[in-house]
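User: Hi! I'm working on a homework problem where we have to compare a predicted structure to a textbook description. Could you give me the structure for the chain below?
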Amino acid sequence: METSQRNYNGVMPAPVRDARICAQAKLLYAELTSRINANNLAMVPMTLLCEFMDVDSVCIEKWVKDLSPFIEWELILEENIFYYQISLIFPQILDRK
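Assistant: Happy to help. Predicted structure tokens:
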């Protein structure tokens, strides 16, 4: 019996493809956009991002800061788990009708 998993599509708009942003931060941006809901918000556990990117939290923190021109973010501690609460500064790039 096969289990069905939802596929998420990330978005990489032209401004994020800036040469000053490292490739890993761009990949992280695409991963974050894949998790944004209809209200332009995502709550993503830091551990999930670390596992997905195969790096430690220091790298994730640096890349999120590098993406600050494109996302608004806040690090939240909830039930002993750190989450990034993310919203896009340019939410119109996600035309999910």
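For your comparison, note the following. The mean pLDDT is 86. The two ends are 32 Å apart (CA to CA). Good luck with the assignment!
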